[in-house]
Amino acid sequence: MLGILLANTGSPSSPEPDDIEAYLREFLMDDRIRQAPKPVWKWLLRHHILPKRKYSSAKRYEFIWTEEGSPLLAIQQRLAEKVQALFDAEATQGNGAPSSTGGEGEECVLVRSAMSYGSPSIAEMLREMCDAGVDHVVLLPLYPQSAYSPTMAVVDSFWRAQDAIGWHPVSTVIDNYHDHPAYIAAMAQAVRAVGFNADAGDKILFSLHAIPLKDEAADDTYRTQVAASTRLIEDALGLEPGSITVAFQSVFGPHKESWVSPLSLDVLESWRDEDFRVVFACPGFAIDCLETLYDIPCEMVPALEGEAAQPMVDKVAGNIQAACNTQGRFVWVPTLNDSEEHARVIKAVLDSHLS
């Protein structure tokens, strides 16, 4: 019986400061994330970082919170259900593929959503799979381009969770899908769908999560994968190499110079006095989260259009473009999220490894 874990970083259980603090403490103490020796970092978190950050982060999470709770958790759960439905439909068609329902003599597939930090945890989902009779688990961190953090933090959590519950099934880890044809095609189509027009002078900016330069010095190939994804998407769009500008966001801490560059905010500010449209996409984010739902309308748009461009708070949930009070220069390319197309991308990535 096959179990598939779609995994991500995680989310606090609520936007309340105490819940934010509990989540950040677990997240920031991860060996892949912390930025100083463990004793020093623990002291800094307790006495300097968390007492301030839990309140500033609470305001950000309040901005994106919905009636369903955390957008990341809700959207990823719906995506897992759609991927499950694709496996089930395939089995119903009688082509011999695994299914979740499983007839007599037929292998089953269970698709579950899990998080490195917070709930539903990887350990919780592994226990469920163990109880269901799963004997082979496939872990797919939902980061197209692999990085020491957060991708390998998810992988670390996966192995630790197996040790914690005392269950070690056959395991397959898919640590990236940056050049998978289905992913490339979906990203190119998402850019086309918002009306990108190179002949009219539109420029594309790909904004990806930044990583520390120390990780790159330790042979992290993240930026190499980002460049490969970008070139393949350019080719799919019929663009010349270098047509898409690549930049990075979500730097943690005051020392920007210790992270990969250029930064998306700096690029947007440099374009403020130009007159072309900016088609803005985050191809490294499979699911909307704080870094898209908050940072795009509240930081990226003002960087391009000036501080007068303020987000429309009552429209932010699930619709970044509606939340951007713009003059039409900033065009948001929606994240693939729980779309049917994204479910097919994930299914194709899984199939290419399962075959």
Task: Please characterize this protein's 3D structure.
The protein is of the alpha/beta class. The protein has two domains: 1-176, Rossmann fold, CATH 3.40.50; 181-332, Rossmann fold (3-Layer(aba) Sandwich). The chain is 45% helix and 14% strand. It is built from 13 helices and eight strands. The protein has helices at 17-28, 38-64, 71-92, 122-132, 151-165, 181-193, 213-217, 222-236, 264-270, 290-293, 295-305, 320-323, 340-354, and strands at 2-10, 109-117, 136-141, 170-173, 203-209, 244-249, 278-281, 330-332. The strands form two sheets. A four-stranded parallel β-sheet has the order 2-1-3-4, with helices on both faces. Strands 6-5-7-8 form a four-stranded parallel β-sheet, sandwiched between helices. Helix 3 (71-92) packs across helix 13 and helix 6 packs across helix 8. The radius of gyration is 20 Å and the shape is globular. Residues 101-106 and 314-318 have low confidence and may be disordered.
